[in-house]
């Protein structure tokens, strides 16, 4: 949708203080606040492979190291590899009647790399079966990990044993640098924790590595043989196979494709989802989509007169009401520093220490949210001040604009509008169904240099009709006044008064 | 500008809507789609057998500025089994066999193309060089790698085309016996 | 669901944010899941920005928020909320950087626990040894810290701005004499030329590089294509000379080899020989062909100088870690992260918000135990 609203000349200030276009904002219906990708909590919903569109449960994805078992990417150019049939023709040329056995190989359609390039034999099955390589140092590393595990565990148990010895409140310098009790014991010549059954059970401790005097020499051929650049791998190709990091192209092997995820977004103050995709990887639809585009009036710039410093210019903007309810828009002057009460509330007591809130939803619907009971409530981040500077004044009109509800059928109705809204003719220049053109006067500030980009701002107050019934008795939809700070980039200054 | 002299060998399929200028010889089994452009400005062009030249292809025989001597007219010889994909632009002074010029690629007039090379989609190769055999150029940075073998033939596609094209387009008559 | 939750608790992210490349993976694994450039796409200008190019703390905070987002949602593929994390950092990491990173992780991503580990120490754990002289050659600088019996001897640290950045600048300058338009090349191309064409030459040949009429024939030159429209020449002399900047003594007579020897000089006399016979090289730059061999040659050459004669070192021995050098420090973090150390020593979210500070070794508040 970005191309519909782009270039981003109209920006809304999110509750967190960042400026975004309406297409990248969310509207939490429960808090009646704007949210954006920065101030919501991102969560992983489902894992899937972007090539074969197979859905994987999170446990399986973890088991497969977040990679698809069947799909591979090209080690040469990182595009996806496709499986191709290479029939084994020349293997049996004497007997023309023998049906050629179908053999499969992997091939990249982009850089034409194929599994035959590095001598991987063709497979008889179309999926999988491709050899995976183990880390050559796996055994040694496993031993070392076990050793450290046992060492730290022993230390922990010892610590629990003599509880009398109070641990310091802070991490000490020795802690940070990791000197363990075991190491200390060793240093002062004591045997390593003999009293421990866990270590006794594991008598075999891996030998520490031995340093060698002779080191890898510079390969002599580098000095004499000309380098064939097509045979030396690039750093990207090396880092694709981290444990091998091959330097020549004949050691490039196909890499399992990294899985993708679907994300759901959760409002950090009320723990409700603002966006939740459908589970099926083929679907592009959402289960929950509280995009600001569907709840907040959209503003677009229609025309703006040439801007001159100190002289009022006429600006016509279009308001569109996306909701099913009539709304009233009031244009108020812009307050840049902490305008809304809620912001003050959050920043009021201790600015540096974010407080933790109990989510209101947990008590109201305990059954459905049971699975989330392990979740800690989110930390509310203090909103930051808006960084955008405004260098033009907007004349604040005294009257309001009423926007009728959206009616999709009316878009195709040519019979003309039948509304009977008493408009202020100075303010509303044209209207049709749920849209209205509004005329404003903007005056760029005095003393600005030529070609300065002019940004004007105002606060748009609209009446938001909340359709979620908060209590059973209250059948009437809630109506709220909702204020949004809007910034318009109007273009460059063309002259002076 | 010299007059057009187009020699089409028996078995070649050249659509009438293609734009051919200059002295051009087209080999057996070669298919030239409509709206392909072949300009023999600096000298004759000889296209080998079984080449596939698709729509919007531009093959131009034009010499670099510093080599424009009038002494001897160079001949652009294009080997056999080359594939020129849609909207590629080739000015190479010499082209071997079994090459593929992918869509929207550009080959300048200082680049000699040997055999089995693939110029990837959108790649622009202009620096003076001789491409080694089976070189593959791909990606927006024109990465180069060496293939194991020359690219596969487009036999199936050519067979279909030789059946389909005459049904929908006027074909130039072959005017030379081979 | 609960069984998966229990599983996920065991997955601890291990993160090593380097100046050029970031190593990212899980504890208990043998290699990082990814090594990616430490950079993010800036949404405002739509350009790639490196993390280290931050302007101020606020800017760094935003860069790190974007970067950690990529790490979790493109590679880790789970939500960081209420999960622990292990961060491997250099002991010389700027305070601003580590504190901002902690702030991002605790405040924005709401992680439950953070364990910061010093890279020189944990890199050693891959060997199962406890005493070694660890030299980390990274992007900005080379840092040598001796580790004795599992304790970094911080007062003996040595650091010089010898890393891939200075090599890149040097390569650019050297190429400039043979070619035009080098200055406009992005650093990634320079890096690629370095990786694919250059190497550390031998000491004998290096001496010839600066002679007017060298007696050796240089390595063959390389024609390096840039895009399809340009070819630059990387002469054999350039290929051999680029890395010399690491071994040439600067105005203070300091270079890589003196760093190591100076570090050895600063530790206790009984440990000197042991350190010289246990040298561990980590960092991406040490992976270049010929690096180790040349370093050994240089160390022996320096030993003949008067200032190091008193060391009485007879031999230098080098360790070979069971992994590639560019992620040795990360691997150490992964080994430590697999142990119970996380639950014992990590900084919890509650504590972080209560104290609102990060424990750090230069801070005396965190060092009180060493005083008594």
UniProtKB/TrEMBL annotation, chain A:
Leader peptide range in chain numbering: none
Localization in the cell: Cytoplasm, Cell cortex; Cytoplasm, Cytoskeleton, Microtubule organizing center, Centrosome; Cytoplasm, Cytoskeleton, Stress fiber; Cytoplasm, Myofibril
Principal place of residence: cytoplasm
InterPro entries registered for this protein in UniProt: DCTN4
UniProtKB keywords: Acetylation, Coiled coil, Cytoplasm, Cytoskeleton, Isopeptide bond, Phosphoprotein, Ubl conjugation
GO cellular component, one term: myofibril
One Pfam family in the UniProt entry: Dynactin_p62
Coiled-coil regions, chain positions: none
Stretch list, region Disordered: 340-375
Comp. bias intervals (Low complexity): 350-375
Subunit (UniProt): Subunit of dynactin, a multiprotein complex part of a tripartite complex with dynein and a adapter, such as BICDL1, BICD2 or HOOK3. The dynactin complex is built around ACTR1A/ACTB filament and consists of an actin-related filament composed of a shoulder domain, a pointed end and a barbed end. Its length is defined by its flexible shoulder domain. The soulder is composed of 2 DCTN1 subunits, 4 DCTN2 and 2 DCTN3. The 4 DCNT2 (via N-terminus) bind the ACTR1A filament and act as molecular rulers to determine the length. The pointed end is important for binding dynein-dynactin cargo adapters.
Family that this chain belongs to: Belongs to the dynactin subunit 4 family.
Protein name as annotated: Dynactin subunit 4
Organism: Zophobas morio
Automatic annotation (TrEMBL), chain B:
Family the entry assigns: Belongs to the dynactin subunits 5/6 family. Dynactin subunit 6 subfamily.
InterPro entries noted in UniProt: DCTN6, Trimer_LpxA-like_sf
Native organism taxonomy: Eukaryota, Metazoa, Ecdysozoa, Arthropoda, Hexapoda
GO CC annotation: dynactin complex
Keyword Cytoplasm annotated: yes
Keyword annotations: Cytoplasm, Cytoskeleton
Example GO molecular function: dynein complex binding
Biological process annotations from GO: mitotic spindle organization
Identification of the protein by name: Dynactin subunit 6
Location in or out of the cell: Cytoplasm, Cytoskeleton
Source species, domain of life: Eukaryota
Keyword Secreted: no
Function: Part of the dynactin complex that activates the molecular motor dynein for ultra-processive transport along microtubules.
Matches recorded under CDD domains: LbH_Dynactin_6
From TrEMBL, chain C:
Name of the protein: Actin-related protein 10
Lineage of source species: Eukaryota, Metazoa, Ecdysozoa, Arthropoda, Hexapoda
PANTHER family listed in its UniProt record: ACTIN
InterPro entries the record matches: Actin, ATPase_NBD
Pfam families: Actin (PF00022)
Membership in a protein family: Belongs to the actin family.
């Amino acid at each position: 949708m970005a191309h519909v609203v782009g270039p981003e000349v109209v920006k809304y200030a999110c509750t967190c203080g960042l400026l975004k276009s309406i297409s990248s904002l969310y509207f939490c219906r429960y808090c009646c606040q704007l949210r954006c990708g920065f101030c919501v909590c991102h969560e992983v919903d489902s894992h899937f492979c972007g090539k074969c569109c197979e859905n994987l449960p999170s446990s399986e994805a973890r088991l497969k190291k977040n990679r698809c078992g069947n799909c591979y990417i090209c080690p040469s150019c990182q595009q996806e590899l496709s499986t191709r049939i290479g029939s084994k023709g020349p293997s049996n040329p004497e007997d023309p009647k023998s049906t050629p056995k179908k053999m499969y190989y992997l091939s990249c359609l982009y850089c034409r790399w194929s599994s035959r390039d590095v001598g991987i034999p063709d497979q008889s099955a179309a999926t999988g079966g491709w050899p995976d390589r183990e880390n050559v140092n796996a055994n040694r590393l496993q031993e070392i990990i076990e050793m450290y595990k046992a060492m730290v565990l022993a230390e922990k148990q010892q610590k629990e044993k003599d509880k009398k010895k109070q641990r310091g409140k802070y991490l000490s310098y020795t802690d940070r640098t990791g000197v363990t009790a075991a190491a200390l014991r060793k240093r002062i010549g004591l045997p390593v924790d003999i009293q421990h059954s866990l270590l006794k059970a594991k008598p075999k401790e891996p030998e520490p590595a031995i340093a060698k005097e002779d080191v890898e020499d510079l390969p002599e051929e580098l000095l004499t043989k000309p380098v064939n650049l097509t045979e030396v791998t690039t750093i990207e190709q090396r880092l694709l196979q981290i444990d091998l990091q091959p330097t020549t192209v004949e050691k490039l092997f196909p890499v399992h494709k990294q899985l993708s995820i679907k994300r759901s977004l959760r409002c950090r103050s009320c723990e409700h989802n603002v966006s939740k995709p459908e589970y099926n990887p083929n679907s592009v639809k959402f289960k929950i989509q509280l995009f600001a585009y569907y709840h907040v009036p959209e503003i677009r710039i229609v025309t703006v007169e040439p801007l001159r410093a100190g002289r009022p210019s006429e600006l016509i903007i279009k308001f569109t009401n996306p909701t099913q309810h009539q709304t009233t828009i009031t244009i108020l002057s812009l307050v840049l520093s902490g305008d809304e009460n809620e912001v003050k509330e959050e920043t009021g007591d201790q600015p540096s220490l974010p407080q933790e809130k109990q989510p209101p939803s947990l008590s109201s619907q305990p059954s459905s949210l049971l699975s989330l009971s392990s979740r800690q409530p989110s930390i509310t981040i203090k909103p930051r001040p808006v960084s955008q500077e405004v260098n033009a004044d907007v004349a604040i009109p005294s009257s309001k604009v009423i926007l009728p509800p959206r009616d999709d059928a009316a878009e195709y109705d040519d019979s003309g509008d039948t509304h009977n809204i008493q408009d202020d003719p100075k303010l509303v220049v044209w209207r049709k169904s749920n849209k209205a053109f509004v005329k404003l006067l903007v005056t760029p500030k005095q003393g600005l240099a030529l070609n300065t980009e002019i940004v004007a701002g105002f606060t748009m107050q609209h009446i938001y009709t909340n359709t979620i019934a908060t209590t059973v008795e209250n059948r009437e939809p809630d109506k709220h006044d909702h204020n949004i700070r809007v910034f318009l980039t109007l273009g460059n200054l063309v002259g002076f008064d | 500008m010299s007059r057009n002299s187009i020699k089409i060998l028996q078995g070649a399929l050249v659509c009438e809507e293609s734009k051919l200028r200059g002295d051009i010889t087209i080999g057996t089994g070669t298919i030239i789609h409509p709206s392909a452009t072949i300009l023999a400005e600096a000298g004759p062009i000889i296209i080998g057998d079984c080449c596939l030249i698709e729509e919007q292809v531009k093959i131009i025989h034009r010499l670099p500025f510093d080599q424009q001597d009038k002494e001897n007219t160079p001949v652009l010889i294009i080997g056999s089994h080359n594939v020129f994909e849609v909207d590629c632009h080739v000015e190479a002074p010499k082209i071997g066999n079994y090459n593929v010029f992918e869509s929207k690629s550009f080959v300048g007039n200082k680049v000699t193309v040997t055999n089995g090379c693939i110029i990837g989609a959108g790649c622009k190769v202009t620096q003076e060089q001789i491409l080694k055999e089976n070189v593959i150029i791909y990606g927006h940075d024109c990465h180069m790698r060496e293939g194991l073998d020359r690219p596969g033939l487009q036999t199936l596609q050519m067979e279909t085309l030789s059946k389909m094209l005459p049904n929908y387009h006027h074909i130039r008559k072959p005017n030379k016996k081979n | 669901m609960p069984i998966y939750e229990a599983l996920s608790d065991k997955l601890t992210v291990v993160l090593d944010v380097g100046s050029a490349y970031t190593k990212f993976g899980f504890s208990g694994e043998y290699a990082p899941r990814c090594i990616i450039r430490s950079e993010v796409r800036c949404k405002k200008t739509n350009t790639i920005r490196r993390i280290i190019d931050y302007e101020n703390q606020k800017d760094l905070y935003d860069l790190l928020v974007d970067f950690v987002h990529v790490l979790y949602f493109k590679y880790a593929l789970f939500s960081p909320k209420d999960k622990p994390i292990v961060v491997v950092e250099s002991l010389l990491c700027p305070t601003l950087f580590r504190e901002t990173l902690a702030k991002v992780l605790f405040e924005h991503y709401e992680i439950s626990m953070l364990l910061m580990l010093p890279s020189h120490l944990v890199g050693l754990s891959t060997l199962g040894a406890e005493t070694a002289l660890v030299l980390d050659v990274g992007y900005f600088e080379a840092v040598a810290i001796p580790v004795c019996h599992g304790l970094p001897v911080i007062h003996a640290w040595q650091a010089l701005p010898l890393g891939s950045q200075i090599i890149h600048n040097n390569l650019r300058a050297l190429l400039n004499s043979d070619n035009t338009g080098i200055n406009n090349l992005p650093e990634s191309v320079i890096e690629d030329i370095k990786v694919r064409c250059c190497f550390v030459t031998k000491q004998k040949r290096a001496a010839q590089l600066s002679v007017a009429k060298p007696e050796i024939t240089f390595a063959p030159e390389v024609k390096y294509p840039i895009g399809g429209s340009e070819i630059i020449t990387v002469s054999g002399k350039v290929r051999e000379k680029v890395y010399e900047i690491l071994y040439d003594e600067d105005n203070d007579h300091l270079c890589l080899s003196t760093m190591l020897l100076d570090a050895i000089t600063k530790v206790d006399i009984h440990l000197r020989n042991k350190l010289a016979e246990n040298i561990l090289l980590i960092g991406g730059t040490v992976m270049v062909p010929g690096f180790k061999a040349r370093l050994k040659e240089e160390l022996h050459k320096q030993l003949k100088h008067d200032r190091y004669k008193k060391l009485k070192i007879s031999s230098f021995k080098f360790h070979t870690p069971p992994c590639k050098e560019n992620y040795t420090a990360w691997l150490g973090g992964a080994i430590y992260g697999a142990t119970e150390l996380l639950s014992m020593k990590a900084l919890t979210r509650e504590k972080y918000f209560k104290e609102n500070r990060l424990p750090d070794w230069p801070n005396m508040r965190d060092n009180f135990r060493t005083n008594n």
